[in-house]
Write a structure and sequence with these properties.
By secondary structure, this protein is of the alpha/beta class. 42% of the residues lie in helices and 16% in strands.
């Protein structure tokens, strides 16, 4: 019996609910997407990463700094907040954690020294959402600034990768945030910025309406693939019972692995033979060891 015979003709299509992170995970590796978002219970992850602890500690400190009364927003207080909220997971030992805590403290103090504490953001860690006729997108912006009549999306970065305007231009997440912020607050939002705290550099891109529309169309295309895979997972692929070892074979046509050097950093590498063959698993502190000056 068709949808028309059932009287469903003209009913709105069910939207695919997602975040930029979910869409990017599908692009990076469908197998990792399946283990992250569909397998229940999810396969156990590997140990936490030290570089994630650094990033989260810095983000939390800056968010807390903006929530202080204006007169308390000093560079020194940014360092205090970093120390108070320091996350220790993933480091090799207490000494390495302490070394990075000091580096991160210096990082946030230097960054805060360049901020105007009275220039109140419109949002800090603000969740925004938008939808099209195909997808419902949401995400959380590190900081949303008001500059004149326009909005600016600010994203903090703490990794070793040196950022360029191309990174800002190509970021699906930043484009989605700009579109969503503009629709929620009814103000233009085309400028997106990546603030690289280790160097103090800012990578900027000024979108046009056309470039933002291209990102939204790209999100819809990725979502269509992921949504079809989700449906196949629910209806066509037999899943193991709880406690059974995962056999990837029934899934691989829909959720193939995409082995690369990035597999060394995957939380699910222990469950993926192809990923382990592509790149040896890194120690949890490997990224901060690379960044270390000693």
């Amino acid at each position: 019996m068709t949808a028309e015979q059932l009287g469903f003709e003209g009913m709105p299509r069910r939207l695919y609910t997602c975040t930029p992170s979910r869409l990017n995970t599908w692009l990076d590796c469908p197998r990792r997407y399946r283990m992250t978002y569909l397998d229940r219970p999810a396969p156990p992850k590997g140990p936490p990463w030290a570089h994630n602890s650094v990033g989260a500690s810095v983000h939390n400190a800056l968010a807390a700094w903006w929530r202080l009364p204006v007169h308390e927003r000093t560079p020194a207080m940014a360092g205090v907040l970093l120390i108070r909220g320091w996350l220790t997971e993933g480091f090799r030992d207490p000494s390495q954690s302490a070394q990075w805590r000091e580096r991160a403290r210096e990082m946030v103090e230097r960054y805060a020294a360049g901020l105007d504490p009275a220039d109140e953001p419109l949002g800090v860690e603000r969740t925004v959402a938008t939808r099209t006729d195909r997808i419902a997108l949401s995400g959380r912006i590190d900081r949303l600034d008001a500059r004149g009549s326009e909005l600016v999306v600010v994203d903090y970065k703490t990794g070793r990768h040196i950022l360029t305007p191309d990174d800002a231009r190509g970021s699906l997440a930043l484009a989605v945030y700009a579109v969503a912020a503009s629709r929620v607050l009814r103000r233009p939002c085309r400028r997106v910025e990546l603030h690289h705290l280790p160097t103090g550099e800012v990578a900027v891109w000024e979108h046009t309406d056309e470039s933002l529309a291209r990102h939204i169309r790209r999100a819809e295309q990725i979502a269509a693939e992921a949504s079809a895979a989700d449906e196949a997972y629910k209806t066509k692929i037999p899943r193991p019972r709880q406690g059974e070892a995962v056999d990837h074979t029934p899934y691989d046509e829909v959720f193939p692995p995409r082995p690369s050097n990035l597999c060394a950093w995957c939380d699910y590498a222990r469950h993926c033979p192809e990923g382990r063959a592509a790149a040896p698993k890194k120690d949890p502190w490997a990224a901060v060891l690379i960044d270390s000056t000693t």
